[in-house]
Amino acid sequence: MRLLSGLLWFLYKIAVFYTFLVYALNYWTPSHHWLAGFVMMSLPVTLVFHLAFLVIWAFISPKRMLTTLFVLVLGYPFLARTYQFGRSSTRASLAPEREEPASLTVLNYNVFNFAFYNYQYGHDKETVRQFGSWIEQQQADVLCFQEYFSRQEMADFDFTTRLRSQGYRYRAFLQESETVPNAQNGVAVFSKYPILSVRDTLFSGTNGLLQADILWQKDTVRIIDVHLYSMTLKLSGIVNKNIIDKQEYEKSKHEAKYAVSQLRKGFEKRGAEVGVLESWVADSPHPVIVCGDFNETPYSYVYGRLRRQLDNAFEQKGSGFGFTYNHTPSFIRIDHQFYDKNKLELVGFQTLNKVPYSDHYPLMGRYVFK
User: Fold this and answer.
1) CA 348 to CA 255: how far, in whole Å?
2) pTM for the structure as a whole
């Protein structure tokens, strides 16, 4: 027993060293190298590991619990990125009270092309129509979409016209089709208030940044709609627990290698893309709200860099874990809203995780001028 305890203690000290490295990389974000990305992403796993050892030490070596408690206390600053306690998740929290100053509500949503590809092959047509009805019913002042899709000649997918009829008279697109008239896809911003100027940059495919300066309350708010490099992970075989033959095993192994390769490429791509986003934020003379699909968890270079400039809405007024991915793996938060805390006050925030139509959940934030 003593030998086992000594071996566990030796291995645990190595784990403590690794944990301090994870903490340091997440706190200071010194590098966007892909290897650092993998290490940073492991933060939740390391915390669960230490919680497990807290129980183990209680049985075999209670005095070592102090070391584990010390490690967990050092990780406390990262709790806000992971879970928020005791806040109402009801939609009522986003409805402005009469005595409050006028507020600006911003909804960001990766709409996955409004499920166009399923619709095209005759699947889920009723779901697509429900999706469209839900979009039309939203009362946000500004809508920020990623993977937006609109075709005027298709009634069910003429979202640009439909949104205009709902009061969104002003709009901006990162990418409009050059071959199909009256067609838009990619990153899009719709506003009930005038858009004074637009700026954009296309990274690849439909990924990029779209900036819209919006006239509101006789002032200007800068909205930056974000869709950073996508990973498109194929995880069906990885999460399948019933590997019944060699062929299935080989398929799972191939998908695992593909997933790691895509993660590595994503860390490198998004690390470069966030540099452009940081410069746009730093150069803004107006209050800034940055929102969209970052394809990055809260334990990443991208998240840490933005957190130096702006506050994260979930960390201030979120509830629970705030997971935003409606697919496997469903336990990640990769869609975010950041805002300028020196010029804007966040009044309410919600992850709308009962909206099932896309592979992401929408986020809604309500802001007022300070």
Assistant:
1) 40
2) 0.91
